[in-house]
Amino acid sequence: MTQIEPLTPVLGARVTGVDLAGVRSAEAGAPLRAALVEHKVLVFPDQSLTPTAHRGFAAALGELTPAHPVVPGLDADHPEIYVLDAGDGGKAPVWHTDVTFMARPPLGSVLRAVTLPPTGGDTCWTDLEAAYLFLSEPLRDLADKLTAVHDGRKDFEEYLHERLGGEGNTWEGQRIRSLEPVEHPVVRVHPESGRRSLFVNPGFTTRLLGVSEAESRALLDVFFAAVGRPEFTVRHRWREGDVVVWDNRSTAHYAVDDYGDQRRVMHRITLRGDVPVGV
């Protein structure tokens, strides 16, 4: 019997009593999709997934994207799996929401631990709905009206051109040959829950439109401080067999880089999302 145990009052739940290798249809995945909208982060311990089973479970939650707009997938049989290898640049020690530098960011992510360091390597998630509600009412009213620029060039432009010769993956039907910045509302309305989130992150959000550069910097500092408040976060210490699913529309996450040169390899699959809609 599936049991869902909240991890904090605002964010995350531990789900037991379910074998993810057996969740292979949209009907079977529907209760977990509903739990994902409610809790935003779901931790499934003691799983035993192959790359193929990982893909099968993720497909029960939604339509799969390629591994990444730029970075190739695991192999020809698993082009949807993004390999996060700490020894090959697969670290992300900054608050970020996956792939917001594209016009249609993923709905969510399904992350599986493959190789873990003896100690360290935790992942933290933060609740962007709570971050929005933390702002004062006048500031929320302002945020509701703002648009932000998201830019992935700092992280992936060099990889795209120097390692791939300017030929990335096909994302939303288009071959990625450049990473032009995109615009998203600062406050995103969740398409399923109707709740509002502060949809900015230090990893990819670079500028607010319609205000001066100084005002943009100051406002982003305020927004980023709200995103990173510890009381809105949950921290997961990975164990072999762990799978974590999160809602990319209402969370950001941070991969803690505290394990030196020890090996850490994770496999991530993302679910096709929609164009962010503001207030």
From TrEMBL:
It holds the Pfam family TauD. The keyword Iron applies. It is an enzyme of class 1 (oxidoreductase). Its cofactor is Fe(2+). Keywords: Dioxygenase, Iron, Metal-binding, Oxidoreductase. InterPro entries: AtsK-like, TauD-like_sf, TauD/TfdA-like. GO terms for cellular component: cytoplasm. Coiled coil: none annotated. One of its GO terms (molecular function) is metal ion binding. Its EC number is 1.14.11.17. The keyword Oxidoreductase applies. Residues 3-270 form the TauD/TfdA-like domain. Belongs to the TfdA dioxygenase family. PANTHER family: ALPHA-KETOGLUTARATE-DEPENDENT SULFATE ESTER DIOXYGENASE, ALPHA-KETOGLUTARATE-DEPENDENT SULFONATE DIOXYGENASE. This is Taurine dioxygenase. The gene is tauD.
